């Protein structure tokens, strides 16, 4: 594991960015032709993720922030992929939520809601957990894993029909269509005559 998450060095290398915060955190792990990747383990990966998520100035780019993000990502993955004890996953997400709270106050422009966290390092993880709750309240059926069985990315389907299946039609959708086309044509190809 990266012992010094450090400041962001370079652009976000992930194939899918811009999803709602909890899914964006999940998508900090991905698989491509060169293998498995984990942005949070890259040198400067915490800074890259915070910057890409619009949270660059909300938390220090340190080990505590990394640990909070990893714990939250683990809970979210277990909840969405169903690969772990659901009670344990719920407890994991609730543990993140215990590190913060919403506080109402009257500010110069009128009523405000501010987030108080135990430490600034917990703010991005807390925001991701809170945003997950909001997605569940809005439309949990729109939270999806890519239909490509070899892909680990998640997305929130905002299409009008609600029929989005792929993290990216250009990548996973086309690969799946090409694979089906190849399989279909391979089966229908004539078998060479062995007597010739």
TrEMBL record:
Every Zinc finger CGNR domain range: 142-185
Gene3D superfamilies: Jann2411-like domain
Database matches in Pfam families: ABATE (PF07336), zf-CGNR (PF11706)
Name used for this protein in its record: CGNR zinc finger domain-containing protein
Native organism: Streptomyces sp. R39
Lineage of origin: Bacteria, Bacillati, Actinomycetota, Actinomycetes, Kitasatosporales
